[in-house]
Amino acid sequence: MASFKLFLLPGDGIGPEVMAEVEKITAFFNANGLAHFEIEKGLVGGSAYDAHGQAISNADMALADAADAVLFGAVGGPKWDGVAYDVRPEAGLLRLRKDLALFANLRPAICYPALADASSLKREIVEGLDIVIVRELTGGVYFGEPKQIIDLGNGQKRGIDTQVYDTYEIERIGRVAFDLARKRRNKVTSSEKRNVMKSGVLWNEVITALHKREFPDVTLEHQLADALGMQLVRWPKQFDVIVTDNLFGDMLSDVAAMLTGSLGMLPSASLGETNPKTRKRKALYEPVHGSAPDITGKGLANPIAMIGSFGMALRYSFGLNEAADKLEAAIAGVLDAGLRTADISNEGGAPVSTAQMGDAIVAALGRAYA
Ligand code: IPM
Ligand code: MN
User: Fold this and answer.
1) Taking a C-beta distance cutoff of 8 angstroms, is the pair 313, 280 a contact?
2) Cα gap 240→219, rounded to integer Å
3) What is the whole-number distance in angstroms between the Cα of residue 250 and the centre of ligand 1?
4) Do residues 125 and 236 make contact, with C-beta atoms less than 8 angstroms apart?
5) 34 Cα–ligand 1 center, Å
6) Mean pLDDT of 39-68
7) Which atom of ligand 1 is nearest to the CA of 76?
8) Over 70: is that where the pLDDT of 348 sits?
9) What are 370's strand-pairing partners?
10) 0.85 surpassed by pTM
11) How confident is the model at residue 113 (pLDDT cuts 50, 70, 90)?
């Protein structure tokens, strides 16, 4: 039986609560002999800072590097608002992305029919929505230098961030988007701000040339990032795959989350380059939602984005497509049956807890394999 090394980084806030539900799923696969997941756990974010003054330790980075896949919960919270910038909770996540070279972030936004009324948009706008945002994850303004605040000495300070992209970075994320589109509805929308940014001009040129050279069979459109934000809430079903930079991708994926009913629904996969020899790639899977300090410890968190992220690991890291299909069907099934955590609840019936939602998904999975 296939055996896989999973490294869990539950992190802060609701991270540990939603991760506990994923552990029920891995336990199900292990107990039923469907796969063997070997699990190790580490610390990231504020919890790592409390333990050893860093947002992630070198030892945990080494474990992340050695794993077949990393599952990440969430980081941050008001408790760590005052800590130094380079050891703030988010620094742990950014280090994982950068050091493991996870340049491709896939954020699928799917609106389950059962949830069409949970979205703030009208049912006909979102029902049946199925799009993927492909976000560049290791470049752009997140990592560009200089990045600093300088004292101008006249009572003024200057804050500087640098947006920078090289051709190879745009090409490799473009390839991920075009490849993905070929397996879907064959359309890519590339987004930047070429009307004001040089990096946007280059982004547009490189994607256009790549398309012409390697992917002429895929439909390519370009939309300025502000206009795309507007189109996402006006008529999101026009999109299939959206490819964009790190910062625009961050913002647009939060917008896309609301199309699905709740931020608690959106999974994501962060992938590195495939090693041509081993055919393996580094990967980290995380829900798009954050640590949600306001609901931490109350059993209110929706575990579906975290469980869905594990579903993406089954598909992209372990090649267990049937298991991924069954897990996704189990999620759709419990939603169809009317189960709702508080974030997606409607008038009918009291919301269930994080653990009840996880248990129901495991039970549905059990029925799927019975
Ligand atoms: C995300 C998050 C992160 C980001 C934060 C926590 C650094 O918002 O994954 O979307 O900005 O990339
Ligand atoms: Mn974000």
Assistant:
1) no
2) 10
3) 7
4) yes
5) 33
6) 98
7) 6
8) no
9) none
10) yes
11) confident
